[in-house]
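Hey, quick one: can you model this chain's 3D structure?
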Amino acid sequence: MTDCLLCEQPDDTGGYLCPGCTKATVGRLTSLPGLYDELLPFLTPGSGGSTVRRPSAVSAPLPVSEVVLSLRGPGGVVGVVEDWLAAVRDARCMQPVTPVGSVESRLRAAVDGLSANMPWIAVSWPDAGTFAEEIRDLERGITSVVDPADRSERGTRVGTCPAVDDGGVICGAVLRYQPGAKLVVCSWCGCAFPPATWQGLRAFIEHDEQEAGQWQSAS
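Sure thing. Here's the predicted structure for all 219 residues.
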């Protein structure tokens, strides 16, 4: 009997990862391409919003999220996964592969390669614990952006923030109402909406949602 290198619990299989952590690592790996795609709207909050002018509520242009930019860049999610695949192939005396195609296709290929090698990783690779831990941290890091906190603590989704910067860019970040709160505050741009504005806020949001639906139907 050995201890799993990820959860540190006794493991009857005698490998480096217990069956539970092996299964969880495969699940985290296979979720990465979808999570990568979900990061795109968070690169700039106004990138998917309406261009209809609103009374200005944000005093300066919104910056690009450096965290999201880093995760979606060549050295981000895809870089981490490709590096681990290269390490596995080297440890197994396999020929190195040269990544080709878009970042999205490279990420899927690397995920597929690692998933196919998981039985060997779990049983035979001394670096399995470090690998599984980094994949876990990577998945958690992305999730903290696209789906922050526990759902029970996130509050009720109101819609998307209609605040506008001086350049006319809509914020577009998700607004949530926390039970008992006296303000609805945008977690991205910081714009606060007191109760007296909620009726008008809802009207703005419904208008934007209608416009978005019409655009999608037309396209």
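One thing worth noting: The helical segments are 19-39, 66-72, 77-91, 103-116, 118-124, 128-146, 198-218.
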